[in-house]
């Protein structure tokens, strides 16, 4: 009975404390003005939502103690109103360059149109079919002049007394097919590039289209420059090293198939490795890395260029590796400065 009467008296005392002076005209404005502005109401809603999602402790809009509701805190309303509005995490993510690249706004897509997945697959099938036809026609045309192409590719070592042999039946025939395939792919690459651009063009924004022309032109120019550098610099240097090393000991009688495999792989790998500035420009425009960050890791780039040259070149001699690593390093530094000059 003693504990029951004590609990009842405590409840009555608490009820009196929380309900006294509610009719007083001096206390009512404090109770009414607690959420007098829309900003306070928005902040209280944001705080409630963040607490319910478990985003951490936020010190905002704590109510006064129930024991003394009649004591108003001066300037409480103005202090709450001066607090900045809460920024949603979705707005913070949209401000990032990667988010803008993956999810562009609709007004930035001038040729945007609704297509189903089957429509995309049908368009892709048609463009692949056109590319295959173009490459096939180029291969047939190169096969008609395959002997002239072989004589042209034999020129880097022809003056050093190297002779080529056919070590198996049909080896020369399959070598002509291989040379025709590489040359046909090279001649058909503009059609492939056009079909790729036409397929992805509706999904590009206006800002990305401004860089499309320079990137395509620069990529093509660098690829053909890599082929020319490999034919006139890398291939003669590598083959001269092997010929001079074997001079006076063995006679240079090379397999025609292995020679062309060496030359073609070296030329195409060099052309692909010359695409480093294009990749840098794309990463800079997307916002993944800046020009200053690219320049700050030049020590690692030196080591990476040597390792890449060792992997790309089919030969194991240090001369060819250094001859390829030097332009790779120069292209990387040039691409980093180009990204920096564009303001990225």
UniProtKB/TrEMBL annotation:
Its main location: membrane. Residues 56-87 are annotated as: Disordered. InterPro entries: Sec-indep_translocase_CS, TatC. The keyword Membrane applies. It is found in: Membrane. It comes from Camelina sativa. Belongs to the TatC family. This is Sec-independent protein translocase protein TATC, chloroplastic. It is a multi-pass membrane protein. It comes from the Eukaryota. The chain crosses the membrane at residues 128-146, 179-204, 211-234, 262-283, 295-313, 319-339. The gene is LOC104773961. The keyword Nucleotide-binding does not apply. Keywords: Membrane, Transmembrane, Transmembrane helix.
